[in-house]
């Protein structure tokens, strides 16, 4: 009840700051103008001789000077305390406002009672010594925890309701205690105590009314100046200090204070109203003296001059005080910066402790809290949470620990955002959102209760992790559906991890597999199932690669040391040589279902039917209906006995196209089934496609994009930069890449390490890494060229680059960032398909750079040296341990390049140019894209079509979407 009144009062003050401030200032000014500035105002020593105006004794002067200096020092310390909240000026200003306002208020009250305001000057040191800004700090802490202005008001109200009763009691106590002094018959003491009482009352009024309004206004102004950004640092510091320093008042002491106040009240009532009944109000008599009226005199100088003169000459103690105040102000403004450093350190320590706590509790699988289960559910309400967890200065005894608890997601998130996100282990753990980790110290509720909650409106989010795990175990929640049922991807992942850890019986086993802060919404239903985290892979950048006159910085995700550095060197050589030229010579993704007929003869009849141009057009018509982008370009049919393998070849826009081909082929087969009722469809994929397996058909016919890159490296660059000669390179290329691979019976492996570059770029850009099998097919050719055959002509021919810039893993934000880096993210709005072709060209160009560099290193015998330098972890290697010999190294998987050469020739590149027997028109103009101003056009369109694919909301492409989805489910089975 009492705290409700305080709360309402606090909320009113904080929500009407202007009204309160202007109102207070107006009232004060009016009251002052009534008495202070009237003609009858008397200023001690200026227009009358007062009692205090007489020369002070030497010893009195000393005491007064010391008291005043102490008061200034005390004030300085108070401001330092305020500064520990992380605010150099903000809170200082509001604290000063409070002191000034309470001083002015005291003056007003003195004047209202008809007292002598000049006496206040004497009382000033004592007044300052009574100032206690700790309560102001406490209220500020409440206010600074807020993120919105609305929260500022609520929090100030909460602070007032919490601090208000205590400060009221303290003020009453102080007034009564100091008031005892006014009962003495010592005139000076009486008057001092009287001023003391007034200043306590004024201080109280200022704190309760003026200060909350000022605080609210100042925070509002600061926030507006920061463009609405929350006072993050202050929030964090408020939290740290809250954790470390806040103590609640002891209820026993509060009790004693109340008893003491009651006793003192009796003393006062007895001495004022019973003993001295009928006397003139002692209070006002203390503030005025009749003697003064008798000593009026004419002022000798203007008031300002009087005060200045008095400050400089007459009152040496004021001068001391003034000098000290100036000194301390300078110190505060310019030399107290170490306070901030200390605070930053504390903040870091606190967040580290917090991270440790979080990761410990994650390991334990339980959260630490003592709240009852009822409270747990209740405390999801943010306000409730705050009431339970914010520190009160007035209530229970124990220091409230900064708890990892429900409803606390936002702050922790902000706190953690300030730390280094590059670290994937402990730090990543700290991004875990406590909101979803409901405490489980209480025994889990019964299965019936849990099921009831599960089926209620609140759903599983009201259950604790432990309860959800038991529901998963009892098969009420399918484990794979956790994310969807909880409607919280990260919590789903966390619970799955916990379940896994329980089976592993080793709590720390997944500590280094990060899981938080990941865009799981893109993963779910598209990229991965049963998710327990994500695998961070280092991404390096090679380049710039000068390709067709443009520069590209190529992202490569790899854990093989030397790879990026070597590719980079190749790029450098290429750039200095004028760059790479690339051509995309073919484009066609493939899918080849296998169908069976009753006999080989019947199969051959169907084959003939399919090779007829008109019939093919019928097939195309049916195929093309399945997508806006997939357009059938040809059919390649082979027969094996009574089996037919129909290889559908189609352009797929910017998508890699496997799903599209599957859909189209399925539709075409359905149409063929109508034509040939005896056709038995054995599988949508008959391995003649061929996906993710080494196959000559891909090498010969091509798959995806077929690209050739070429460059001429002048002799001087070969010699200076690559440290070898053209002739050595040409020789080595024949011996190794051509003869060596032929001897090995390789299919498409006529290169040094194309797979290295292909895979690294595939991982970085969200391609399907398993497709590196075919995509790495590459023929590297080198020959001497130019005048005197002194330069090197190098080319890489890659017939099967299966790449896309839309769909699959390209939708994931990090991967899409890498695509963006290359300028090929998403769908190419002007000409769908161009992005994917450019990506294929970039990959081929980078392969060429990698080939050039590695071949040069091999030729120059640099390989071993560079690997020793870059591809050896020095961790745990003892200083005196000798490095392995090169013969040792050649056995390591990373050092397999030092293979021997043989003399044999045998390879051909005309495979990729092979004519497709049937050529069909491609209509790619019907792609529709709308741009989003916040995203690059390419990414915008990628996201949109991805969203469409996910939500299935597009009318225009609903068929496409549905089939895309169906096929994506089947993808695994048919690849
Ligand atoms: P894939 O066929 O490579 O597996 P997906 O089927 O996962 O790729 O994603 C391709 C989706 O993107 C299709 O639904 C397609 O309609 C849509 N899309 C949007 N723009 C393009 C584009 N320029 N090229 C290809 N597909 C596009």
TrEMBL record:
The GO molecular function terms of this record are:
hydroxymethylglutaryl-CoA reductase (NADPH) activity; NADP binding
Renumbered residue ranges of the record's region Disordered: 347-381, 404-441, 874-901, 920-975
Q: Pinpoint the SSD domain residues.
A: 60-217
Give, as in the UniProt entry, the pathway in which the protein acts.
Metabolic intermediate biosynthesis; (R)-mevalonate biosynthesis; (R)-mevalonate from acetyl-CoA: step 3/3
Which chemical reaction does it catalyze? (R)-mevalonate + 2 NADP(+) + CoA = (3S)-3-hydroxy-3-methylglutaryl-CoA + 2 NADPH + 2 H(+)
> In which residue ranges is the amino acid composition biased (Low complexity)?
879-893
Cellular component terms (Gene Ontology): endoplasmic reticulum membrane; peroxisomal membrane
Keyword terms of this UniProt record: Endoplasmic reticulum, Glycoprotein, Membrane, NADP, Oxidoreductase, Transmembrane, Transmembrane helix
The EC number(s) attached to this protein equal 1.1.1.34
Q: Which Gene Ontology BP terms does the record give?
A: coenzyme A metabolic process; isoprenoid biosynthetic process; sterol biosynthetic process
Q: Where does the chain cross the membrane?
A: 20-41, 89-114, 201-219
Domain of life, per UniProt, equals Eukaryota
| Record's compositionally biased regions (Polar residues) | 364-380, 920-934, 948-958
Return the NCBIfam families for the record. 2A060605 (TIGR00920), HMG_CoA_R_NADP (TIGR00533)
Q: What is the protein's name according to its record?
A: 3-hydroxy-3-methylglutaryl coenzyme A reductase
Task: Give the species this sequence originates from.
Answer: Mytilus galloprovincialis
What taxonomic lineage is listed for the species of origin? Eukaryota, Metazoa, Spiralia, Lophotrochozoa, Mollusca
